[in-house]
Every structure is written in C-alpha cells, then in structure tokens.
Amino acid sequence: MWPGTEVHILGGLGGLLFVITIFIHRDGKTEKVTAIDRAWLDPAAGVTFWVDLQAPSVPESLILSDTMGFHPLAVEDAMSALQYPKVEAYEAYLYVVLHDIDFAPGELGFKTHDIDFFLGPTYLVTVHDGRSSAITELLDHCPRNPRILADGPVPLFHRIVDAMVDHYRPEVEKLEDRLDGLEDQVFANPTPALARQILSQKRDVSSLRRVTTPQRDVIARLARREFADFTPEMAFRFRDVYDHLVRIADDALIFQDRITGILDAHLSNVSNRLNEVMKVLTVLATIFMPLTLLTGIFGMNVDLPHFPGGPAAQFWWLFGFMAIVVVVMLAWFHRKRWI
Description:
The chain has eight helices and eight strands; from the N terminus they run ββββααββββαααααα. The protein is an alpha+beta fold. Strands 1, 2, 3, 4, 5, 6, 7 and 8 form an eight-stranded mixed beta sheet that branches.
C-alpha cells in the first residue's frame, strides 16, 4: 500500500470484518489516517505509527510484505490460523507471537487466540482475528491520549502485552473455581457424566500450560534486554509482566496436578461404589447357596427323614432352619466386617 492509498473496511468472513486501522503520532498529535507513507519507516522522519490488521485476507497481507517489507516467512506465520508464542529477531524489527484470552460469554472453557506483533524503531504492526479486547481498548483510547503513541512503539507494545496478561487472571480464577466444584462433586455426586467434565477441564488446563509456558519464556527474553530497542525502563516493565506470567504458569502446573488427582479420585470412587454393589450381590448369592441346597435336597422325589410333626409342619421346620442359617451367616459376615 503506497502513499495516498485508502484504507477501509474490506469485507467479512465468518462474522469477522476485515478492518485496517492506522494511527500516526507527529508534531505532538495523534491522528487516524487512511494511508501508509514508506518514509515513516525512517527514524529521521520523527513519526511513530501503529497499524492494526483485524482478520486480514491474502490481499491485505500485501501491507505486510510489500508496504512494510517484512520477511515472507514472518508474513506467512502472521497469516496462519495458529502460532504458538515465540519471538524472532530480524534485521530491522522483531516478530513476536503472543496469546490473548478468547472471551466467550455464556460458555465454559479456556480458549486463547494468537496476536502477531511486528515491532520496529518507528512502528508497531498488530495482526489478529478481531477479538482482542486488549487491542480494542487501546484503539479506543489512542485518539484521546497522545501519550500512547508518543512514548514510542516499545511502550505501546508493552501496554498491549500487559493488558493481555491482566486478562488471564480472571479466567484463571474461573478455572480454579470450576476445579473446586469438580472436587466437591467427586464425593457428593459422582455421576457418570462427571468424567466428561473432568476431561474437559483437563483439556483447558493443558491448553493453559501449552500457552503460558512458551509465552513466559518470550517475555523473559524481552525482560533480559536481548534486543537493542528495549531500554532498561522497559526491561523493568516487562519483568513485571514476566512475574505475572510466572504465577499463571505455576498455577497451571498446580491445576494440572489437581485435575489429575480429581480424575484419579473420581475413578477410585466409582470403583469403590462398584465394589460396594458387588459386595452386596456376593453376600446375597452366598446366603442363597445353602438355601438352594436345602430346598434342592428336600425337594427330591425320594424318601427322606422327616422332622417331628405332620406333613404341614415339615415346611415350617425347613423354613425355620433356613432362617437360622441366614441369621448365622449375616452375623458371621458382620463379625468379619464384610457388611
């Protein structure tokens, strides 16, 4: 996109609009523009600008490759559906991938989406799917607060990253509450559907670990000033972000242990309940074994010794003897703590 070319909403796909937003800061003012001038890439121009691409398609990717001159591999990664957190240093800019929380009102589950950053001496380019609340908030504040761009691309990058990490904490707390609820259900109401819920939360915890661990490592590299554009002050700020991510990563590790323990406890509880049922059935079957033997013997069509009394008394003698057998066996089972 060359000077004078208009930038506007281009269309939609899957409910998401292709939106390109450009803010420029010069002469102490921040304004929204509709075109990118390649002269702004020169630090001597005294211009700081931010280009935000929301759900770009292949034609819009030309802004990254042709106008900004980014490496084809970095552009390919930025246009891909999913990339895990990483940082790559190119000759004149940094390419950073980080993950933001994907808010889904009314839905349970932990989801994230990646945001691609191209960080240069005079610019910041962000590429995402349009659902980043951290970037949306800054886009709203940018025209009203000139300092957002006046401080430079690195502080702007820090503002976005800090907001992204702050958004993790409420979702992590919700995940912890769901684990607490599962722990209570394991013993209070261990239904067959509970296993599915536990596995669903286990998948969320695994997703959290898979994102936060490499993201923590990326922020650690930024906090160590491995790259020239990061001043000591910005290193301190990213160190604070790193501390937050370390706590979230530690929580994810604890959650992994908890969800494994919850699943083991649930399976053990189900097994114990099954054993209780089997014990009752075994006791019943064992009690009926001698009863079946007695009825089988006295039901044979042969002459057998008789109990005292007439023919009708034989039934009551046999019934009483069987009742005594049952009582003795139950007493024995109780003494052995089998029931």
